[in-house]
Amino acid sequence: MLPPELNGVCPDEGDSYVVHSKICDLKMVPNLRRSNSGFCKSKRKAHFATGNNEKENLSSWIPENIKKKECVYFVESSQMSDTGQWPMRKLGRRYNLPRSWCWAFSKRVMCECGYPREQHLEEATKSSVFLGKEWDPKRHIQEMPTDAFGDISFAGLGPKVGKYVRVSVDTPPCVIYQLMTQHWGLDVPNLLISVTGGAKNFNMMPRLKNVFRRGLVKVAQTTGAWIITGGSHTGVMKQVGEAVRDFSMSSSCKEGEIVTIGIATWGTVYNRGSLICPMGGFPAEYVLDEESQGNLSCLDSNHSHFILVDDGTHGRYGVEISLRTRLEKFISEQTKVKGGVAIKIPIVCVVLEGGPGTLDTIYNAITNGTPCVIVEGSGRVADVIAQVANRPVPEITISLIQKKLSILFQDTYELFTEGKIVEWTKKIQDIVRSRQLLTIFREGKDGQQDVDVAILQALLKASRNRDHFGHENWDHQLKLAVAWNRVDIARSEIFTDDHEWKPADLHPVMAAALIANKPDFVKLFLEQGVRLKEFVTWDTLIYLYENMAPSSLFHGKLQKVLVEEKERSAFSKVPGIQLHHVSQVLRELLGDSTQPLYPKPKHAERHRLSIAVPHIKLNVQGVSLRSLYKRSAGRVTFTMDPVRDLLIWAIVQSRKELAEIIWAQSQDCIAGALACSKILKELSKEEDDTDSMEEMLTLAEEYEHRAIGVFTECYRKDEERAQKLLIRVSEAWGKTTCLQLALEAKNMNFVSHGGIQAFLTKVWWGKLCVDNGLWRVILCVVFFPLIYTSFVTFREKRLQPMSCLTRTRAFFTAPVVIFHLNILSYFSFLWLFAYILMIDFQPTPSWREYVIYFWLFSLVCEETRQLFYDPDGFGLLKMASLYFSDFWNKLDVCAILIFIAGLTCRWIPSTLYPGRIILSLAFIIFCLRLMHIFTVSKTLGPKIIIVKRMMKDVFFFLFLLAVWVVSFGVAKQAILIHNEERVDWIFRGVVYHSYLTIFGQIPSYIDGVNFNLDQCSPNGTDPYKPKCPESNKDKRPVFPEWLTVILLCLYLLFTNILLLNLLIAMFNYTFQQVQEHTDQIWKFQRHDLIEEYHGRPAAPPPFILFNHLQLFVKRVLLRQPAKRHKQLKEKLEKNEEAALLSWETYLKENYLQHQQCREKQNMEQKIRDVAQRVDVLVELLDLDRVKRTGLVEQRLTGLEEQMSQTAKTLAWIVRALRGNGFGSEEDVPTMVPSKAPELKEYGSEEKPEETTALYHVSARNLLYPSSSTVRFPVPDEKVPWEVEFQIYDPPFYTADRKEVAASDPLRDSLEALSKINYNAMDGLINRQSFHGTYAVQNRLPLNPMGRTGLRGRGSLRFFGPNRALHPIVTRWRRNMDGSIYRKSLKKMLEVLVVKSPVSDHWALPGGSLEPGESLPLKLKRVLRREFWPQFQNLLNQGAEVYKGYVDDPRNTDNAWIETVAINMHFEDQSDVQMKRLNSFLQGSDPEPCVWWQLVDKRIPLYANHKELLQKVTALLGAYY
User: How far apart are CA 1284 and CA 45, in angstroms?
Assistant: First the structure.
């Protein structure tokens, strides 16, 4: 077996190197086996064969769409491989390999591509097509299907598996993005973090390293970002990998994995042969060996994905840069839609340390508009930029950059040529000039503590400074913050005084925050003025339910309702969600006692308005989220209670934090909390997941406590108003009451509250005073004339002096009186019933028996009344369900049915006696009914509850007991008795005798001692005696007595000792459990009895029949509906209800404040607060130390500067004195050169004063537009022609224009250029400059503004000035009433702008002038031909605002643009010329888009056009 380092020595086909056959000869080297790679291949194939379909699809998709690069023509290189991919000498010493082998490996013939001959295909070494030609990578490297992809695991570093793929450098970014998102399963990122910097290991200060790692991981984890690095195990990539590793080790699985993508060069990856497998490696095992990697690099094991870029060469770094740049740009152009909000994926570049390549990366990023975060203190390039970033650009000179490089690049400074330093200066100037894209992270300075905040602030700063129309940029920033879930960034960076947010502007992101479950943002938006009444419309609510989490239980129930409706209506597809579907599910959860919360609309489908709004999209049905709020006021349908609607939406998904925030906004908060408790309890019954079920029950209990807390506050304040809250009909919650909701949810803690029990007691006593005493009531029932005296008192004072009839009605309609009258009646009924059964049961019924029948008939009528009594309109089925849900009602029905069965048998003479037996059984059940009467007693009531619970224990205990009874009984019967055929005696022997044995009645014949033949029947013929056991001829038993005794002992042991004690233990547990909550349970069940007698007719049976007759006349004959008594359900007037809810809301706020105070006083919270303060204090101390160090450095620097100035002053004095004859040369002291900085270093908090650029800037952009030509770098100080610049050698470039006519020659030949007449009219071409006479050198004009870094005329048509015209058409911005719109007391302008389909920027309607023409061609495209003369007249009447040079990126040293800007302002909105202009716009060419746009400094125009527009606003005194 080969050592790990030599895995690539004998690779598979397509590996990095193929060893010469002599070296792999098995005869020469027995211990080196060539089959090693084949074994690996077969192993991978076998592993792949067992993979799933997903891997098979990937194995076919990747080779079809992704290619690799391979050299197809071998050209021997002059360089020999003396280091190679493997340091063979070191391996030879480690594995005792022959020296000749090492030499053979280390000295091989290499191709120009960097690979040895053995690595090439046979056709490449014998190719006759390219024979004799020079090696050209464009021709001799071709694409082939990739052979390295799949899963990657790192040997010896745990079970972590990543993804990798080898791709061609020319692979389209869209293919790689598809691979990552669709085949690798990566979620589309909310942010792209491109980390760049030093590729070699470098040292960072430990504190800065920790801050960087913590911040980078935090921003990636909180925002759902992708981190892209170089992927190797060195430099900044290693730092990122270790940060991710530390996070993975310290976090839980729920936090998710950080996506870290390494984009590396395939040809520089060490040990890449182990990754090659044409069918895909699942997984491929990669060995990370830094000792043997040589000039190559290993992959970092902490990255999750690798994209290995191949250009067909070996050992050449930087191949991946172009593909990485294109991929990052492609990803940043993608739009992610989540929660109804669409954002373009933002990208940020984070820089640590770095060299020349890093500077190029930063420059390209800034040029492309990508914000960069530079970590100061990391070294080299990062520190160079950080140290000059706060200087004005003119102060960043070549000498300054040279000095910085000499300090920070000490090891490689001698490699910097003068040209390289100039190039660095130019690039750094351009980088610093774009301050809006540049953020310097200074640890411990500027209040910065975390890298994550710096990264996000950099993105927002770049977005804030980007040109935009209106407030769309602020919307974009807010959408970014919501996508990142960083409410701290939103508070500090977005919701500032710089922008005034309208509540309506926050509605789309509010919906996105709700759907994405981001409660902090919901709270923030509510603080910013979002009103839920305006936010929650009918369509918004439907949209929220359409975007519920599919995993929620409520979503499944809703889908079930939709499917059922489809089946009923025979729809072709499942109908869309409507609110009546939601109401149907909610009624199942809240109970049928509530009315539907959302009634079903009369029409089958409501009209849905959809208005498309740019930049904000919706991922459901293509509807725009902003369109939900952009409809006219008359067509918006608002819900009745928006807070309730959002609360329900949040609570059915168990979103605790969201529901808490919304509940705090509610008015009907007690009912809302009780309804939430009910919903959660019902959902928990159907939840399969135990953890979710427990969370639901905990949350339900929490809302019950909230209801109790608010009610307690109300009850303390005003008892009467608090009790009114209990019985108030809540329209918002389905016309139910708080008390009814609590009873439906079985909220015993709430119902047992003292205030509610006081209310129930008041209802129980009716109009009587509760302090009368029960004995007074009983005496008044027996001697009713006492009610006309002062023996009993009434609660209402007006009843005291009233008439006898009124006092009688008030007394006998009280539930407590009705209850005791019914008790007396029921005891009388039972006494008479018992008398008849025992004494007076004759064949012919006596009058007393007829009284019993009449009495029972009155009971039947009362039960019928209870069944059909429906004051709330629930319907017969619901009332029947509620009636039979009560145990005591079931017992009543059972007793009545048995009584009727016994009565039927009693009237038949032949079944008279069975009838009396059945009636006796009915009497037992009637007696059990007495327990319900005693539940009102505080002493007996709890005991009855305990008995009921123990009955359940007995029921389950009987199952255990039956096992032992039957098993012992059958065994005993089979051993003792032979072939007993009588079923009754079998039952007695198996069950009855076995059961009695438990209580000590042991059969006498079981052991043979007390055996007596007289007590049994030998043949089993005597029906009154059991059959005798097995016996012999002497009539003695022959069964094994020892076995029956053992069985009996075991049976008694398990039943008497084990099972009976188990039953006692169960009883004891039930008693203790119920005893703890006995008071609550009794108070909860007490309500049922009070409600029953509160609605019961006053007369007891059998006199109750008169009340039933009265009810029959009212309901059946007069059709009067049933009415509930106001004491248990009362509908208030609107004004009274509004005042009551406002009072409840006020006390709810008090409750929430008290809760916050309690949480603060909680010991655990205090400990957390103290710990947090200690952490903050430690952080401040560290920052203070850093600041002090910086302050000392500043003071030393200042002292050094002062010493330098003093030395210079002294030197000047010495020179002056020597010049006047004092002293001599020998006496001059030696001056020590100062090390103080020559220029002022700006502090971190100081910002340089930006002035208008002294020289052209756009004209010196390094990359010339629409070409691959790169300018010679020209720093600011070298722009003037007067400044000497010896190394200045700009390239010559002239674009080959299609319109050859009327343009200057392409080349700089003297013959062609000699015909041009500069500084004068050259035919129709005006070559005169607005800036006077310009210099001409070598027959080429010189740009009057200085050097540009490019000779020739570029893409311009003429050498020298190229004339342009820019009309600036403006008018005043008007309000709806016609008045001029103002901002900051200044009038605001509107300007006419044009946008081309191929450009992202808008422009002024003008451009280059053709020779002899007065209007630009671009302007003619947007105007109809017949309006051209009139527009020319308007131009002649306009005001000239500028005439001169234009800083344009197309300018060169020899050609430049000069323009005339004329303002055409329409003062009056009814101006005829303006109306004609509007009518003639965009008539010639339909492509350009013409628009009147509001003028401000963020209008997205070209930079030079914005300068012209600014001059117009200054001329007109308008706002800019």
Answer: 69
Cα separation, 1446 vs 695, in Å, equals 68
Q: Determine contact, residues 279/44, Cβ cutoff 8 Å.
A: yes
Long-range CB contacts (within 8 A, 24+) of 1189-1195: 1190/444, 1190/445, 1194/1243
Tens-place pLDDT, residues 1057-1078: 888 888 888 888 888 877 777 7
Specify the 3-state DSSP secondary structure of 808: helix
Q: How many beta carbons lie within 10 A of that of residue 470, not counting itself?
A: 12
Residue 373 in tokens: 């975060």
HSE-up of 544 (CA within 13 Å, CB side)?
29
The b-or-e profile of 101-139 (16+ CB within 10 A means b, else e) is bbeebbebebbbbbbbeebbbeebeebeebeeeebeeee
Its pTM stands at 0.71
- Whole-number Cα distances in Å, 3 to 33, 97, 687, 888: 11, 11, 56, 85
- Per DSSP, what are the bridge partners of residue 151? 163
DSSP 354: -
Backbone angles phi, psi at 1190, to 5 degrees: -65, -35
Helix (H) or strand (E) holding 486: none
| Percent of residues in the chain assigned helix, strand, coil, to nearest 5 | 50, 10, 40
Per the structure block, which two tokens stand in for 1453? Answer: 């040293």
Q: Residue 1495: which of 1373, 1384, 1385 has the closest Cα? A: 1373
DSSP 81-134: -SS-SS-HHHHHHHHT--HHHHHHHHS--BBTTS-BGGGS-HHHHS-SSSTTPP
Q: Is 1131 helix (H, G, I), strand (E, B) or coil?
A: coil
pLDDT tens digit sequence for 167-199: 999 999 999 999 999 989 898 888 899 999 887
Count CA atoms closer than 13 A to 1177's CA, side-chain side: 6
Q: How far apart are CA 816 and CA 774, in angstroms?
A: 9
Residue 645, judged by CB atoms within 10 A of its CB (0-12, 13-18, 19+), counts as buried
Residue pair 150/277 in contact by the 8 Å Cβ criterion: yes
Give the distance from CA 1413 to its chain's centroid. Answer: 60
Using the structure block, give the residue that is written with the tokens 């208005």: 611
Closest CA to 1465 of 1419, 1511, 1407: 1511
pLDDT at residue 937 in the model: 74
Question: What span, in angstroms and rounded, lies between the C-alpha atoms of 988 and 984?
Answer: 6
How far, in whole angstroms, is CA 1406 from its chain's centroid?
48
Cβ–Cβ < 8 Å for 201, 238: yes
pLDDT, tens digit, 9 for 90 and up, residues 1413-1448: 878 777 777 777 777 778 888 888 888 899 999 999
Q: If you search the block for the tokens 């059969």, which residue do you land on? A: 1003
Chain CA centroid to CA 1157, Å: 31
Angle 193-1500-489 (CA atoms, 0-180°, nearest 5)?
A: 40
Contact 589, 683 (CB under 8 A): yes
Q: DSSP state, 965?
A: H
- Give the max Cα distance, the chain: 164
Instruction: Please tell me whether the peptide bond between 189 and the residue prior to it is cis, using omega within 30 degrees of 0.
Output: no
Please calculate the CA angle 929-934-937 and round it to the nearest 5 degrees: 165
**DSSP assignment string, 42-89:** HHHHHHHHTS-HHHHHHHHHHHHH-EEEEE-S--B-SS--SS-SS-HH
Q: Return the structure tokens found at 512.
A: 């996105």
